[in-house]
Design brief:
The strands form 4 sheets. The chain has a 7-stranded parallel sheet with strand order 7-11-6-1-4-5-12, with helices on both faces. A 5-stranded parallel sheet has the order 14-13-15-16-17. The protein has a 3-stranded antiparallel sheet with strand order 8-9-10. Helix 3 packs across helix 4 and helix 6 runs parallel beside helix 10. By secondary structure, the protein is of the alpha/beta class. The chain is globular and about 65 Å long. It has 2 domains: 193 residues, 3-Layer(aba) Sandwich (Rossmann fold), CATH 3.40.50; 116 residues, TPP-binding domain (Rossmann fold, 3-Layer(aba) Sandwich), CATH 3.40.50.
Length: 338
């Protein structure tokens, strides 16, 4: 088994964030991770680095200093126009081998989940996926990585004692992005892509955009979610009608998605999306831990359920005991009057 010596471990320093890119623009989850990285780096007495991979991305580097990055490593090349995990993994492995970061974190997004496992294997490093919390153990200085385990029934804290870097993917909207500080500055490091790194066994032929209309869960300030109590797919039209009135989005529990009542992109929870809305209204959602993991960071929670003892009702700021098919139509009727 590969086990670095104490001297070798001491070579690794700094906390890195791998920037989440879409259309070669830095996405908000990167800001969230930089805020968390700042807290970790301060406890380790080290710096925060961020890695940007893409094409035409030079202007994306400096704004990250305001979000607590101390240095930004930019690899800007036409070969990185589209995401190909094989190419990006080779680049990241070279950078990790060269700069030796102690901790590497990345968003648990579609891209992150494809990319970081490759990097972990190629770098002979450990990886904890889908984390909901990160901290530093005071005694050892090790990264404490908290994630749901056993189907979400418990929260496990994982340490990686023998491998470097320590690597984690973190669910979007679990961490809070820091307020930007325009007075901060840092260092931009430009790296080139080698000929070997440009080669890949696959290439992107076409990019198809999500054509779904309406407010998306990731952007929504108000989310109304239906659970098993929705009973049938056509009943979700009631939630869509309500969501339009509040400029919100419609979510769903895993039970509703598994039943085929609504498509998977609407799923909130451990195996769906993590959301951080201002208001989250749960309609007929019992509130099992798998679902709570995905929405418990929302600012204000409203629950409608016939069972006052349901976990969601205990978590809610406002719990309405009643039939959602009676409560929601009343709200739809009254909202235009306010």
């Amino acid at each position: 088994m590969y086990t670095p010596t104490d001297a070798l471990r001491a070579e690794y320093k700094d906390v890195w964030v791998i920037a989440e890119m879409l259309d070669n623009k830095v996405q908000s989850v990167t800001h969230e991770l930089l805020g968390s990285a700042r807290q970790l780096a301060d406890k380790r007495g080290s710096q925060v680095g961020c890695v940007i991979l893409g094409s035409g991305v030079a202007d994306e580097a400096k704004p990250l200093f305001a979000y607590q990055a101390d240095k930004v490593i930019v690899v800007d090349d036409p070969s990185l126009e589209n995401f190909v995990d094989e190419v990006q993994a080779k680049v990241l492995c070279r950078l990790i081998d060269s700069y030796k970061p102690e901790i590497v974190i990345c968003g648990a997004t579609t891209r992150g989940r494809a990319l970081i496992p490759r990097v972990a294997v190629m770098s002979k490093a450990g990886l904890t996926a889908d984390c909901t919390g990160l901290d530093i153990e005071p005694e050892s200085g090790l990264l404490l990585q908290t994630r749901p385990a056993f189907g979400g029934n418990i929260m496990a804290t994982i340490k990686c004692e023998n491998y470097r870097p320590q690597m984690s993917t973190v669910r979007p909207r679990v961490m809070t992005a820091p307020e930007p500080d325009a007075s901060r500055s840092g260092t931009v490091i430009n790296e080139e892509l080698s000929a070997d790194e440009k080669s890949a066994r696959m290439r992107v032929l076409r990019v198809i955009r999500d054509s779904e209309e309406g407010v998306k869960l990731s952007d929504a300030k108000f989310i109304v979610t239906g659970g098993r109590a929705m009973k049938a797919p056509e009943n979700f039209s009631l939630l869509h009608d309500f969501a339009k009135l509040v400029d919100g989005a419609v979510g769903a529990s895993r039970a509703a998605v598994d039943a085929g009542w609504i498509p998977y992109p609407h799923q909130v929870g451990q195996t769906g999306q993590t959301v951080q809305a201002k208001v989250y209204m749960a309609c007929g959602v019992s509130g099992q831990i798998q679902h709570l993991v995905g929405m418990q960071s929302c600012d204000y929670i409203i629950a409608i359920n016939t069972d006052p003892e349901a976990p969601m009702m205990q978590l809610a700021d406002v719990a309405i005991v009643g039939d959602l098919f009676e409560v929601i139509p009343k709200l739809i009727e009254e909202l235009p009057k306010t």
